[in-house]
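=== RUN LOG ===
request id: a7f3
mode: sequence -> structure
chains: 1
length: 110
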Amino acid sequence: RRQQLLAAMEAKAAPKLEQQQQRGSPPTISQLRFVLKQVRPDWSPSELSLVQEKLAAIQVETPDDLFKQLATLGSRGVNQKLKDHGKRPMRKETLDALLEYGRKGSGTAP
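=== RESULT ===
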């Protein structure tokens, strides 16, 4: 049952991204979600939403925002910002993997 719900949620998200791309508006939130999903494919849609909400609290709305903050502050600095905003920190390994993903130049959805 859980897998069915997850599949349904993912199926609903995909057409929205396509609609945004067809209209020409940049799907920045979807691009960030795409990057998070590439680095942590084990995260459920609800976990991805929670992480996006957490990152939005520190003005991270796009993959570029995320990569810039990680490059300048490092994982420790990003986690400190999250704590300062009342959010739980992320695992260092996850933040390091996100930074590495950004350094490879794979920051946006195809």
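=== NOTES ===
Helices lie at 2-23, 28-39, 45-56, 63-84, 92-103.
Confidence is low (pLDDT under 50) at residues 14-26.
=== END ===
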